[in-house]
Amino acid sequence: MSQNTPTREQDLIRVADALCQRGLLFRGAHANLSARADDRVLITRGGSVAKLRTEDLAWLPLSTQDRHEDFDANYREIINMHTKLYQHRNDVGAIIHCHPAHVAAFAVAHQPIPAVYEPLLRQGIHTDVPVVAWAPRGSEASVNGIIDAFSAPETVAVLLANHGVLVTGADIENALDRLTALEETAELVLHAHALGGAKPLPEAAYHEVAERMQQYRKAS
Ligand SMILES: [Zn+2]
After folding, report:
1. pLDDT grade, residue 218 (50/70/90)?
2. What's the 29 CA to ligand 1 centre distance in angstroms?
3. Could you tell me the residue range of the domain that residue 215 belongs to?
4. Residue 153 Cα, ligand 1 centroid: separation in angstroms?
């Protein structure tokens, strides 16, 4: 156990609570969260993350499937979805999967979420968030679809058709911030539909925002 283990667990519990408080979970509070620490991953064990406790979390080795046998077959599929993505993308430090109401509406409509809201850009999302074709949750076809979408280095989140969303971050707080911006965008785009539809940002917006953020970091 590394020294920072308790902190990692507290981080995940704090973010699970924030998902509830920010209205980022649908009524069943279904979600799974994980965070990478070197060659291990800390992951939630159950379907609901309401009132998450330390005993609802488990540490798993990233490199082998051997020690995943403590979990039932259903849950091993969720573990697979997380561990395969960590193995595929070294820059991913944390993953949140859940069903926020507005984001999930885009997922059931097979509509990508357009990057039309400035806070999304500030979270590093500057292209439409794509939809991964439906396949049973955690199946090889579903996981392969996710991995394919994440082969594009700019992909940090995907919609799972007829299901929900999977968002990554450098750490679990970063994944939460991205998810928050994504749900805000989905809600606003649906409202904008009644007003004639959302309008795209100027072509250069991403670079302008990135430049300003860099200047701000230098100044702070
Ligand atoms: Zn789900």
Report:
1. low
2. 10
3. 5-219
4. 24
Q: Are 92 and 183 in contact (CB under 8 A)?
A: no
Stretch (H or E) spanning 150: none
Domains in the chain, number? 1
CA of residue 108 to ligand 1 center, whole Å: 12
Cα 60 to averaged position of ligand 1 atoms, centre (Å):
20
- Distance (Å) from CA 32 to ligand 1 centroid: 8
Question: What percent of the chain has pLDDT above 90?
Answer: 75
CA of 160 to the centre of ligand 1 (A): 9
- Tallying the residues shown for the chain, one arrives at 220
Distance 173 CA to ligand 1 centre (A): 20
Per-residue model confidence as pLDDT tens digits over 140-184? 899 999 999 999 999 999 999 999 999 999 999 999 999 999 999
- State the average pLDDT over residues 34-54: 93
Average pLDDT over residues 213-218: 70
CATH number of the domain enclosing 143: 3.40.225.10
**Contact between 31 and 97 (Cβ < 8 Å):** yes
pLDDT in tens, 65-85: 655 666 777 678 889 899 999
